[in-house]
Specification:
By secondary structure, this protein is of the alpha/beta class. It is built from 4 helices and 4 strands. Helix 1 (16-30) links the parallel strand 1 and strand 2 (36-41). The termini are close together.
């Protein structure tokens, strides 16, 4: 089955998942894939909405990406049956999707990237961004290379 909709999921939907979604979307569009990539968080705090963190937004700008339109959202308020692949930023997120929402394991891809929060150091967030770029490339190579 072709992957056309991806949801990147972290905890609060302010640092890792919006940046992963932006990087994945860039990679996939540059490779000629017509894929929708979105993000959400497993913590209820994401229901309050709001922008991505200033640190992730800065890291994104350094990568040539604009996340100014990002608005945090809670995964429990997302129509999960619309997604073909769930890129989970850590094991706790993967377990949440599998346990609470019964997402089949074959639709879950865990990239296991440490959360830079609550660090107030841009350097920590930039290191996380480097890891996100590397893991996004791995997602594309593993999930789209056979197409």
């Amino acid at each position: 089955m072709a992957i056309t909709n991806i949801l990147c999921v972290c905890h609060g939907n302010s640092d890792r998942s919006p940046l992963m979604a932006a990087v994945l979307e860039m990679f996939l569009k540059n490779a000629g894939h017509d894929v929708k990539v979105e993000s959400a968080g497993i913590l209820e705090i994401a229901t309050k909405g709001g922008p991505a963190s200033i640190f992730s937004t800065t890291s994104a700008k350094r990568l040539g990406l604009d996340m100014s339109g990002h608005n945090k959202r809670w995964v429990d308020n997302v129509k999960l049956d619309e997604f073909d692949l769930f890129v989970c930023l850590d094991r706790q997120v993967a377990e949440y999707l599998f346990g609470r929402h019964r997402i089949p394991k074959e639709k879950i891809y865990n990239v296991n990237i440490s959360d830079p929060w609550p660090s107030l150091e841009q350097r920590e967030h930039d290191l996380t961004a480097e890891t996100i770029v590397s893991m996004a490339y791995r997602v594309v190579a593993r999930k789209f290379s056979a197409e």
